[in-house]
Amino acid sequence: MEGDDNSGADAGAMIAEAGPNATILQARRDLNVTYVRARVPRVVVSSRDIYVAVHAFSPPQGYERAEHILWRGHGAGVVVLMGEPRTGRQTCALSVLCLGNAQPVHRLNVTWGEHDFPDLPREGNARYLLDITYAEELSDDFAANLRDYGRELEAVNAKLVVIASTAVWQQYADELADITESIGQPQVLDVVRVRLDYEARRTTMPGGELLDVQALAGIVEALKDSDAPPDYGVSLALDIIAHAESQEELLRFAASWKRWNRYIVDHLAKDVPGSAGERILLIAAAVLGGATVETLSEEAGALSEKLGIAVDPTRVLEGADIRQQLSKVGARRIGDRIYLSARAADHDEVVDYLWEQRPNIRKALFAWITDMSVRKPTDSAESRRLIEVVHRLASRHRWVSAIDVLFNLLSGNRDQNRRAYAALAGLLEDPHVGQALQKRLYDWAGGSRNLVEVARLCGGKVGDNSFTVAVVRLRRVASRAQTAAVRLAVQDALRSHAERTKLTRVLSVVEQWPQHERTIALTGLLDPEWLHAAGHLSTRSGTQGELGLLDPLADAWLWLINDPAAGEFNTELIRGWGRLADVYPATHALAVELLATVVGAGQSNPPIATIFQQLSPDMSAAVIDCLKGKHGIESVGSRTDITAEI
Q1: What does the domain layout of the chain look like in residue ranges?
Q2: In this model, does residue 498 exceed pLDDT 60?
Q3: pTM, whole model, 2 decimals?
């Protein structure tokens, strides 16, 4: 190994560059650290989703050809399902993969730009699902690489189904026409019927025949030509089951459904000239769901501006008063707050209807909601409702830009921060927009805003799904950590990973980080109080009574000893380890060995005298005895006379 001896001491540490992708640290023994590309994280699709795809699936147009391509084609190993979000593509993909038999399927959480095809798994007999709907950085040779990857999978009897939107896939559709199939949307009544049959097999309730009872005739008739998405059919089926105990219950449910459906049709579906003002008030009342009268009036005016509907200020006093305006749209005033319905779900159904049936106003509606988030309502109820709506747009309607609104709300008051954080944490587990959020986290980690929350997310749900994805983002946050709060958030996130996986695994990763980021990480992971409280110091292994963590902890600390900027951190760690050994005798042996290693490294960061000033007399004596026993006083004395310094 070639390199310069940084310490000038025979027992010191030496660092050398071993090429662009590796660094070598020689301390008590050679430690080779090499940067390796992380494999793509995989998440097991829930057994519930698998069973639904196998036993409660209504095949859409294009299903048979997709199945033929994957299983009876020419050995492609992959099929691409092209279609729009919320049309049942994932259930279709799982059905194609399982081919009638429930079996494990892994979702590949690929962040293109961080990963590429060499990082994808190739396990025999495996079933993989890859969603690229929200991919932003697909390469020009993506099609050729996908075909090659499919052939590799076919060679080991593995299969892959790719889900893609038309916008993303149209550039590759011609080149890969033989493995691409456009998937339609199943009719909502078919979805309701098969879901009722599925639930009937699991319970004692009737199945699809429920749709034939007279009580539900009105619902069936209304949905015959409906283009409602499959998830609406699933929700309706579960509602029907919940009210299927008696004919009377079904009648009450059907009456309520028809009444609300008629409300939607009358107030939002029909072509009614001159109704814009009423509809704006209705939309504002639905989105705000329980806002004060003042807020509703102000936001209705703001929505008018977004929609380009001018309000003549000279006519403000000519219209009906607020009571009559609310009466026209069926809203009610309870105290000083306005509701469309006593059921919170009814407000959401108006939002859903607008998003699905009025696509021409989506951008204006979302711009209005975004502006509201910038204004950050101080009223707790209004703030809660705003976050609920934004979360619904992201999760149910796959409106990825809603993620950015939640991120901006993190900088609001404590209540907004808490609710926005919870919403983002939940979306990380969403099978549809979770990957898009992971990409956003990567970008946010390279910025300067809300870094504490970004680190917390990377220590929580991201890490639950993928350790490698989380630590890449934490390293970016650490590189921009200018405050104690951000540094602590990074350390806490890494500690949570250490508690979920292994401390040694986390240490081996952060030791590869650049010096600034590594110092932040290691000062948190080497903290003796946390190590003891988390139970990492409780297992003995190795020989001569050493704790099993001695080597990895010592190797990690040597990185800090060789960091000129880490003197203050090292001093605090030394003080902490000495204090821990004095309070908890069970940790004494490890603390002594560890401190002796630090002193024996031959570095003066901090100076040796400073090291012993942080320790009690008994601890200092124990460390010196350990040095004599392990290194020999002669080897230590050849660098410096420790006893003279203290």
Answers
A1: 42-182, 188-269, 276-422, 517-646
A2: yes
A3: 0.83
